[in-house]
Inverse folding.
């Protein structure tokens, strides 16, 4: 077994142990890979969440929708509301912290599942 296959196997085992999970999917390689592995490993226990807002490029949303349709994911599109957060709007160097905080808080309003992120 190659190092990559071993890492993938460990990830699949970990995901099976988590139980029902909400996966934040940005449309980037990391989150899309995690979503595909989770769906393949525990399809009934994985729900994907993608934030749609002016801060998220339209091509990322299109990519997530395309993958969800092709793979048969449970996908929920949400508005994380980051622009309502004055800390985010100040555009500080740590704005990613505020964006992620808003994203995870919004996901928590939609599910009680364990949150998982490829970030």
């Amino acid at each position: 077994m190659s190092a990559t296959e071993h890492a993938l196997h460990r990830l699949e085992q970990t995901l099976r142990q988590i139980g029902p999970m909400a996966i934040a999917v940005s449309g980037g390689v990391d989150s899309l890979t995690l979503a595909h592995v989770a769906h393949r490993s525990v399809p009934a226990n994985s729900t994907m969440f993608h934030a749609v807002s002016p801060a998220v490029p339209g091509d990322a949303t299109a990519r997530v929708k395309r993958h969800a349709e092709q793979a048969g994911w449970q996908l929920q599109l949400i508005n994380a509301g980051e622009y309502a957060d004055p800390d985010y709007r100040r555009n500080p160097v740590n704005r990613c912290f505020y964006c992620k905080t808003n994203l995870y808080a919004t996901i928590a309003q939609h599910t009680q599942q364990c949150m998982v992120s490829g970030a």
